[in-house]
Amino acid sequence: MTMIDAAPWITRRRRRFPPEAWAPLLCKATWDETHDVRTFLLAPVDGSRIEHDPGQFMTFQIDTPQGTVERCYTIASSASRDGGIEISVKRQAGAGSAHLHETLVPGATILAFGPSGRFGPVSWPDEKYTLIAAGSGITPILSMLRTAADRGIALDATLIHVSPTEADLIATQEIALLSRRLPHLTYVPITTRGPGASRPSAGLLNSLAPGLADSTVLCCGPQSFMEMVRAAARDAGVPPERYGEESFDFSSPEAEITPAADTPVRSISFVRTGKTFECAETTTILSAVKAAGLPLPSSCARGMCGTCKIFKHSGEVTMAHEGGIRQREIDRGFILPCVSRPLTDIVLDC
Predict the structure, then answer these.
(1) In terms of Cα–Cα distance, which of 203, 72, 57, 190 is closest to 132?
(2) 102: left (phi over 0), alpha (psi -120 to 50) or beta
(3) Any idea what the Cα angle at residue 141 is, between residues 137 and 147, rounded to 5°?
(4) Helices 139-151 & 172-181 angle (0-180, nearest 10)
(5) What is the Cα–Cα distance from 58 to 71, expressed in whole angstroms?
(6) Model pTM score
(7) Predicted local confidence at residue 316, as pLDDT
(8) CB crowding 130-140: b at 16 or more within 10 Å, else e
(9) Which of 106, 115, 164, 112 has its CA nearest to residue 140?
(10) If DSSP codes are grouped into helix, strand and coil, which group holds residue 16?
(11) Distance from C-alpha of 336 to C-alpha of 284, rounded to nearest angstrom
(12) Shortest CA distance to 18 belongs to which of 55, 41, 44, 54?
């Protein structure tokens, strides 16, 4: 009997991109969404697949003339496509986004960590959603829409997108095309400047999404914008468990306190990787993680965004956050390492 190789179209399943280690991504293509928002198509250098949920983000190491910085960007592409990811980055004054726009060109590589985070639909077909975004905060919502369209999910949602002008609206033509595949999607773009401009307010949101109280509300944008949406959702009767948000507006990190010679030092252990390092009681756990050269997704460094949220298996901390974690998450054992200082030895799920 003569044996032949398997058919050429039958391929072995590629290994998974490591979600808990830094690994390089290759820039395959770039294109401009608006005058200051650019999309980057990135794929693993080793050909592995990136598995992610809609609304998750990745952390990137960006080498700038001022030094290496870490920035988190939401995956905008469909979770059904694992050959690579897309991130859409607004160019801002900070070193991170500006340097990406200038140097991350096709053929260049960048170190990435993740995917991480939890922000997105839980039971797609069974719930009605109100999706509210400002500016580039639409990126996680684009991932949700693209995933629903790819998977044939009957997403019932109202999308409200706020931008300064029509020229600043991201992916408007694509959303119109997605609406043909998502017949229960209502798209409401809002501009805040020029003819027909509107000022985002609780009253406006309620008029545009009359079913707000009966929907799951997901919001992404600057902190002040999300505070307004959060209050509107609360006043409309949306319970906390049906409201989620992801922040893109981060202020300066909290200053570290220099430990005195007699400051107690605690042990921090990562249960999955077996890594252990020390952290003074006056030092945030995130700062100690970075000093030990270990990876941990982070962005705002002041307890606002929730990027570094992690489960604490044991130990006690003092934590002064600014809304990046909910009380029920704290009750379950989660902490924000960026604003948590150890009172005892700590064991984290990492």
Answers:
(1) 190
(2) alpha
(3) 150
(4) 30
(5) 8
(6) 0.74
(7) 93
(8) bbbbbbbbbbb
(9) 115
(10) strand
(11) 10
(12) 44
pLDDT value of residue 32: 96
Distance separating alpha carbons of residues 8 and 21, to the nearest angstrom: 32
Q: In 10 A of CB 235, how many CB atoms? A: 12
For residues 75 and 52, give the distance between their C-alpha atoms in angstroms, rounded to a whole number. Answer: 8
Tell me which residue has tokens 């399943």: 13
What CA–CA distance (Å, rounded) separates 253 from 31? 32
209: phi then psi, degrees, rounded to nearest 5:
-125, 75
Q: Contact at 8 Å (CB) between 330 and 347?
A: no
Give me the half-sphere count of Cα atoms (radius 13 Å) on the Cβ side of residue 329: 16
Residue 299 in tokens: 């962005």
Q: How far is CA 72 from the centre of its chain?
A: 7
* Positive or negative: CA dihedral 86, 164, 219, 172: negative
Give the tokens for residue 74: 């939401």
Per-residue HEC secondary structure of 154-223 comes to CCEEEEEEEECCHHHCCCHHHHHHHHHHCCCEEEEEEECCCCCCCCCCHHHHHHHCCCHHHCEEEEEECH
| 48-52, 223-227, 319-323: the lowest-pLDDT one | 319-323
Q: Token match 């890594």: residue?
A: 275
Q: Token pair of 283, please?
A: 């030092």
DSSP 84-106: -EEEEEE--SSHHHHHHHHH--T
* Interval 89-148: pLDDT, tens: 999 876 688 889 999 999 999 999 888 777 776 556 668 899 999 999 999 999 999 999
